[in-house]
Amino acid sequence: MVLAQDIRLNRVAGAMLGGATGIAVMSVVFLMLEVETREQVRAFDAVARYVGMPGNTFVGFIVFALTGIIAWPLLFVAIEPYLPFEDSPSNGMILGAVLWVAFFILGRGTISGPLLAVFAGFTLLGHFAYGFLLGSLYDRFGDTEASTADQQPNAVDGPPD
């Protein structure tokens, strides 16, 4: 029997794992953005500017990673029951879109023109991917059914090959 407390803890763990996976994917998308723009965007510097340490890319990345792995997943666990969709990946994408609006407004710096459109597209893609993965793993770890690895094969199916 699965206790409600176990499910909540599993969902927190799943959300944090989803946040870590989402941050990894978002980092790759941001790296592609840097390549496409010849390092004119400097996305992690935007985070560093926000926390008051302009030009310190390492601090920007650490803050980016920790908030994406800890803070936003915990927020998602708290607000997910109140979000409009039945499936958590869609709700995660809503959170990603909200985070993107804040990142777009605060992180774009002096970017303008066509570069702004490239920045908007890549960062929106990254935030949608982050939210989708966050919600997917939140759902996966919160399932009340036993893991498929723990299930016994049916007599009709026979033993596994």
Structure commentary:
This protein is mostly helical. The protein has one domain (4-142). The chain contains five helices and no strands.
Sequence-ordered SSE layout with sheet pairings:
Blueprint: H1 4-36, H2 43-50, H3 57-79, H4 88-107, H5 114-142
Give a short overview.
Helices cover 70% and strands 0% of the residues.
Shape: elongated
Radius of gyration, in angstroms, nearest whole number = 19 Å
Q: What's the helix-strand series?
A: HHHHH
Separate helix tally: 5
Please give the share of residues in helix: over 70%
Keywords:
single chain, 5 helices, mainly alpha, elongated
